[in-house]
User: Which sequence fits this backbone?
């Protein structure tokens, strides 16, 4: 394989165990196998798990959901690989920690931008290039939220490569100074690498913990409660947003890709 196109086409199939023809034109991304199970229930398809592949993928009605794992390197990788099929829209359904005192467990955050604290995206763009979602995609998510009587916050998401920082008061003070609404490990990378690969990309994040205070740090029990109470609606809204885009048959690109 000599070209980038050959590599990503081969590797998307290798990482998912699915041929390129299997993928729909609208992609939901997640970090959780349970979300893929919920997607299968929502769409009425077989939830059989592919245990021998890194990225589990399921397609129904032209929409594909992929569990790409955790962290910004994996986020960059999946966006590179998805360039092999050039999806019309790609929406991340992820969880985040609330930074603002305003957010509560189960709240939704519709990011207006990502703060690139992860470093991975520096391999794609200079640091001064902002990490932005596709506006029309976020607008469809907003409509789907309202259609389901769900409120949401807007704001920025700080993306970091650090997984264990909840004890670091200096870092937490820095997060407060950014005025970000939430913190995660993927959003800014997905926005940047989606833009790099000419893939309209958005996100809808579920606040799963409040890590700025000791009693709010995520545990197995607290994450299980959040998943039980909110994950099914999260997936449903993501599917509905994609169906809105498919029904309108309109582009969701927010800028012209002209280089």
Assistant:
């Amino acid at each position: 394989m000599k070209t980038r196109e050959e590599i990503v086409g081969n590797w998307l199939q290798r990482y998912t165990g699915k041929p390129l023809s299997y993928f729909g034109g609208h992609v939901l991304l997640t970090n959780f196998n349970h979300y893929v199970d919920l997607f299968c229930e929502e769409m009425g398809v077989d939830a059989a798990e592919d245990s021998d592949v890194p990225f589990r993928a399921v397609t129904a009605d032209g929409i594909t959901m992929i569990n790409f794992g955790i962290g910004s390197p994996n986020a960059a990788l999946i966006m590179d690989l998805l360039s092999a099929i050039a999806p019309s829209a790609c929406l991340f359904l992820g969880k985040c920690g609330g930074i603002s005192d305003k957010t509560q467990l189960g709240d939704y955050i519709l990011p207006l931008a990502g703060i690139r604290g992860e470093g991975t995206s520096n391999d794609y763009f200079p640091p001064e290039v902002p990490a932005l979602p596709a506006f029309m995609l976020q607008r469809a998510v907003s409509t789907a939220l309202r259609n389901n009587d769900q409120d949401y916050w807007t704001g920025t998401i700080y993306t970091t490569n650090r997984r264990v920082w909840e004890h670091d008061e200096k870092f937490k003070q820095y997060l407060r100074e950014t005025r970000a609404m939430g913190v995660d490990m993927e959003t800014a990378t997905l926005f940047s690498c989606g833009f790099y690969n000419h893939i309209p990309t958005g996100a809808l994040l579920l606040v799963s913990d409040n890590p700025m205070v000791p009693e709010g740090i995520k545990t197995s029990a607290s994450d299980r409660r959040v998943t039980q109470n909110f994950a099914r609606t999260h997936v449903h809204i993501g599917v509905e947003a994609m169906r809105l885009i498919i029904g309108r048959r309109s582009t969701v690109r927010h800028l012209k890709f002209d280089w």
